[in-house]
């Protein structure tokens, strides 16, 4: 087994806990929906495109974003729902860009399908805009090398994994996820960093993601 | 009462570690809960569990209860029904009665908390005592379509609070104060939800003279019009035409719920000719409720309105197939055909019950999915975390908070 590099600066694991803040804004038609998507805060867009990652860790019938779910299941616009669900979130480095993509997808659909504007949700089935308030706390876990890093990954909450993989990159606008950044810059292991940043985390459950990262790190340790 | 460590086998060590981290951030703050009754009903039930657990997490939580006479609670019951959208005649005198008792409470209750957390409309007027401390109001009621006169009356108080909490997104509206979504929760280690040995379940059935010779349908809920016990009997009678089964309607009444006794009499009248309908009044008998839920084949919650519907979470936690109305917080707990069946009518409820009784494998799968969903989202540990974050949010107005 090759000797492990010790980092000067350890990786300090944080956790991210969130609270859902209601806005009182609701949409009944696609027109209202689009207007509100353009107007609400970035924290709202973030909530509705990422909520599923933390609330549904197991197989569930819901599509992975609230916008697609409402458009498909409530308005019955399956094609638009499919277009929204297949937006490749990992390609967008800011919420701003993601919001523009969602809005332009709906706009282009409405141009091609003007009758879709006439659809409306029944009372009680309106889309309610909610925003995510994040609380970021340092945990007591730190790692100086890959061994310690893998051991901590086995113990920390999925909220911590979520924070370092998703929130740090998209919401805090860092160039890559925190794990890859530390591995490249503090351990100097560019290959491992690339491995960790190259897969699409949006298509896994958080538990699968944890296991995948542990597996990649452990196979690097054993060489 | 269970200690915080006892939740580790259910939710994992790291979840409890996170709660302790949050508890540290709240050191030195006194959190004072105030509601209208120490026993009966969902609010008192949650506070009975929540307050000791917060203390274990080193959060200085206290709980006080307002006082009120029969007349006051009759008025607040009318308010409650009106906020749920039921037609109620609210007189000028009703508002006066409300304010007279409120004034007595304003004079007698010490609002010493750094954070004063008011639950439901009964104590809402205490906000008049607001000083430099922070005030929260939690609305446990389904206010998707409230009587605007009562809501308007409450708004004068609501706008003076720092923030408020709803149980479901559909209850929210544009407000000048911050509003948060925090669904309630169940305690998996309480007498009502803990695992029970089969002997106890059998002995409870024997106690109430219920034989397990035909499938059991049950609704466990307060005797209240909004829980529609008469509708449950009608749905059961439609099922009974095709499947020989029995029905249990079990529930208590809250101390401040005078109308409940009237509803109970009506239900008894409706059920008196059918020996397979068991009407059980179970005030504060949690082990019996737990045993009856576990003995049931299908659990129903046919509410017309529902603040949240914790009995649905209780049933799902026991991996029971559930048929419930698509109202209030129930759709947050049940995804139709995935973790239970939703209905909108008596006929719909009866059809769904028949489906579940006829397809045990499907019913079992729905129950198992339901238990997993409750485990991930509606246990008391999630609720404790949300409350502590809510308290911290009072000192942090931003969307991304570094603690």
TrEMBL record, chain B:
<dbReference type="GO" id="GO:0016757">
    <property type="term" value="F:glycosyltransferase activity"/>
</dbReference>
<comment type="similarity">
    <text>Belongs to the glycosyltransferase group 1 family. Glycosyltransferase 4 subfamily.</text>
</comment>
<dbReference type="Pfam" id="PF21269">
    <property type="entry name" value="TreT_GT1"/>
</dbReference>
<comment type="subunit">
    <text>Homodimer.</text>
</comment>
<protein>
    <submittedName>
        <fullName>Glycosyl transferase family 1</fullName>
    </submittedName>
</protein>
<keyword id="KW-0313">Glucose metabolism</keyword>
<dbReference type="InterPro" id="IPR001296">
    <property type="entry name" value="Glyco_trans_1"/>
</dbReference>
<keyword id="KW-0808">Transferase</keyword>
<dbReference type="InterPro" id="IPR049438">
    <property type="entry name" value="TreT_GT1"/>
</dbReference>
<dbReference type="GO" id="GO:0006006">
    <property type="term" value="P:glucose metabolic process"/>
</dbReference>
<feature type="domain" description="Trehalose synthase N-terminal">
    <location>
        <begin position="33"/>
        <end position="172"/>
    </location>
</feature>
<feature type="domain" description="Glycosyl transferase family 1">
    <location>
        <begin position="206"/>
        <end position="372"/>
    </location>
</feature>
<keyword id="KW-0119">Carbohydrate metabolism</keyword>
<keyword id="KW-0328">Glycosyltransferase</keyword>
<dbReference type="Pfam" id="PF00534">
    <property type="entry name" value="Glycos_transf_1"/>
</dbReference>
<dbReference type="InterPro" id="IPR052078">
    <property type="entry name" value="Trehalose_Metab_GTase"/>
</dbReference>
């Amino acid at each position: 087994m090759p000797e492990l590099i010790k980092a000067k600066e350890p990786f300090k694991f944080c956790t991210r806990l969130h609270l859902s803040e209601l806005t009182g804004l609701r949409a009944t038609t696609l027109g209202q929906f689009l207007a509100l998507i353009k107007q609400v805060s970035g924290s709202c867009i973030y909530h509705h495109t990422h909520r599923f990652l933390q609330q549904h860790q197991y197989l569930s019938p819901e599509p992975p974003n609230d916008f697609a779910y409402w458009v498909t299941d409530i308005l019955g616009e399956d094609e638009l729902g499919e277009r929204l669900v297949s937006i490749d979130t990992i390609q967008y480095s800011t919420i701003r860009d993601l919001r523009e993509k969602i809005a332009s997808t709906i706009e282009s659909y409405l141009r091609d399908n003007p009758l879709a504007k006439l659809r409306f949700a029944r009372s009680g089935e309106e889309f309610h805009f909610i925003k995510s308030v994040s609380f970021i706390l340092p945990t007591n876990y730190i790692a100086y090398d890959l061994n310690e890093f893998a051991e901590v990954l086995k113990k920390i909450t999925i909220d911590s994994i979520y924070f370092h993989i998703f929130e740090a990159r998209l919401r805090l606008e860092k160039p890559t996820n925190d794990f890859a950044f530390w591995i490249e810059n503090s351990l100097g292991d560019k290959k491992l960093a690339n491995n960790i940043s190259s897969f699409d985390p949006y298509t896994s459950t958080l538990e699968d993601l944890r296991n995948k990262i542990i597996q990649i790190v452990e196979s690097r340790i054993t060489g | 009462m269970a200690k915080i460590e006892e939740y580790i086998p259910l939710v994992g060590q790291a979840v409890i570690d996170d709660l302790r981290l949050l508890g540290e951030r709240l050191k030195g703050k006194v959190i004072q809960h105030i509601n209208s009754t120490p026993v009966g009903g969902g609010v008192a039930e949650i506070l009975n569990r929540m307050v000791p657990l917060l203390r274990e997490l080193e959060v200085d939580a206290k709980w006080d209860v307002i006082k009120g006479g029969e007349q006051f609670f009759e008025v607040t019951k009318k308010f409650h029904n009106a906020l749920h959208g039921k037609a109620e005649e609210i007189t000028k005198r009703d508002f006066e009665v409300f304010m007279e008792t409120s004034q007595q409470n304003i004079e007698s209750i010490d609002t010493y908390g750094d954070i004063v957390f008011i639950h439901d409309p009964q104590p809402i007027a205490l906000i008049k005592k607001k000083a430099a401390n922070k005030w929260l109001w939690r609305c446990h009621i389904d206010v998707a379509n409230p009587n605007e006169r009562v809501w308007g009356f409450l708004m004068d108080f609501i706008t003076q609070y720092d923030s408020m909490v709803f149980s479901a997104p559909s209850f929210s509206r544009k407000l000048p104060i911050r509003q948060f979504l925090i669904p309630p929760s169940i305690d998996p280690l309480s007498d009502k939800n803990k695992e029970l040995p089969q002997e106890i379940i059998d002995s409870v059935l024997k106690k109430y003279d219920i034989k397990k010779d035909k499938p059991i349908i049950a609704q466990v809920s307060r005797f209240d019009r909004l829980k529609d016990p008469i509708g449950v009997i009608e749905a059961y009678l439609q099922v009974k035409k095709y499947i020989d089964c029995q029905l249990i309607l079990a529930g208590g009444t809250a101390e401040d719920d005078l109308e409940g006794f009237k509803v109970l009499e009506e239900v008894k009248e409706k059920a008196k000719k059918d020996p397979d309908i068991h009407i059980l009044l179970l005030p504060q008998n949690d082990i019996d409720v737990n045993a009856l839920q576990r003995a049931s084949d299908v659990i129903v919650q046919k509410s017309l309105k529902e603040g949240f519907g914790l009995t649905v979470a209780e049933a799902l936690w026991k991996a029971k197939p559930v048929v419930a109305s698509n109202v209030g917080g129930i759709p947050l707990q049940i995804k139709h055909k995935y973790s239970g069946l939703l209905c909108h009518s008596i006929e719909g409820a009866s059809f769904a019950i028949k489906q579940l009784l006829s397809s045990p494998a499907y019913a079992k799968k729905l129950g198992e999915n339901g238990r997993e969903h409750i485990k991930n989202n509606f246990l008391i540990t999630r609720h404790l975390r949300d409350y502590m974050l809510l308290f911290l949010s009072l000192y942090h107005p931003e969307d991304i908070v570094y603690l």
